[in-house]
Specification:
This protein has 251 residues and is α/β, with parallel strands linked by helices. Helices cover 31% and strands 25% of the residues. The strands form 2 sheets. The chain has a 6-stranded mixed beta sheet, sandwiched between helices. A 4-stranded antiparallel beta sheet has the order 2-1-4-5, covered by helices on one side. α7 packs across α8. The two termini are 31 Å apart. The structure holds adenosine-5'-triphosphate and magnesium ion (MG). The site of magnesium ion has 2 residues, from α1. The site of adenosine-5'-triphosphate has 11 residues, from β2 and α1.
């Protein structure tokens, strides 16, 4: 579904990303790990349209894409959630789910929003993450971090995203909320949405991903099947940047 070839992002002399090849299949849950400064966020920013590559290509379903902005990527089916989520806390759940793509009443009533339908559909999206009973008029500021992630993901579904990228989704969350977010990822996976997870938490990575891609200093150090390692072994791989049986990235 996604094919990256020779992807580079240079900032002056800094090679934040340096010739990364990566293939991701439809419906896969892939984790991207690596030490601080390895290039994870840079890679995500290129995939999500927040930044453009210095060199290399991104293909989506066999077609070359050049995203000009995150909304361009979203329209192509790639949604990204960040820790701060870019939600509007004072607006309701329903308003956040439909932000930037509100439903209108029939064209005859030009400019009037179809609030009832947005509430109903927002409830449907939230139900897919186990929040069927939530009041769609509640402001997002009332919600917990985990519930806010659900709103951000409901927004991705509203845009019919086929790929959801999550950069450190549990970084600021407590134990119970992190567990909630892992369940959200599992339910995206059950809905056959492709998930790309960036995380420093190896327990999270082991819990939900099928494959782990290890970055080191802007290069791909290698990949491994998640089932073949535990969190401790993975943490060691991240620190050393070497994968057993794979030649080390030099430098
Ligand atoms: N806008 C920028 N200008 C200059 N250098 C940058 C810029 N963005 C990233 N870099 C550099 O590129 C490298 C990769 O950064 P990136 O943010 O992708 O790392 P990361 O793997 O996400 O790290 P972390 O785990 O700390 O979030 C770092 O050396 C960083 O300093
Ligand atoms: Mg980062």
């Amino acid at each position: 579904m996604i094919r990256l070839r020779g992807l580079c992002r240079h900032f002056g002399g800094v090679h934040a990303l340096d010739g990364v090849d990566l293939d991701i299949a439809d419906g896969e849950c892939v984790a991207i790990v690596g030490d601080n400064g390895a290039g994870k966020s840079t890679l995500i920013r290129l995939l999500s349209g927040a930044d453009t590559p210095s060199a290399g290509t991104i293909e989506l379903n066999g077609r070359l894409v050049r995203f000009r902005s995150p909304s361009h990527a979203l329209a192509a089916g790639i949604a990204t959630t960040y820790q701060d989520l870019a939600l509007a806390p004072r607006l309701s759940i329903a308003q956040n789910v439909f932000m930037g793509g509100e439903l209108l009443l029939r064209p005859a009533c030009f400019g009037l929003l179809d609030k009832q339908r947005m509430r109903r559909e927002a409830r449907g999206y939230m139900a897919r993450f186990g929040f069927a009973g939530a009041d769609m008029d509640r402001p997002v500021s009332d919600l917990s971090g985990g519930q806010r992630q659900a709103v951000a993901l409901a927004r991705a579904l509203r845009w019919r995203a086929r790929v959801v990228i999550m950069d450190e989704p549990t970084a600021a969350l407590g134990v119970a909320e992190s567990r909630m977010v892992l369940n959200l990822i599992r339910s995206l996976h059950e809905q056959r949405v492709t998930v790309i997870l960036v995380s420093h938490d190896m327990d999270d990575v082991v819990a939900v991903s099928e494959r782990v891609v290890v970055l080191k200093r802007g290069r791909k150090a290698g990949e491994l099947a998640t089932g073949s390692v535990d969190a401790d072994a993975l943490a060691h791989v991240v620190m050393s940047g070497t994968i057993p049986g794979v030649a080390a990235v030099d430098g």
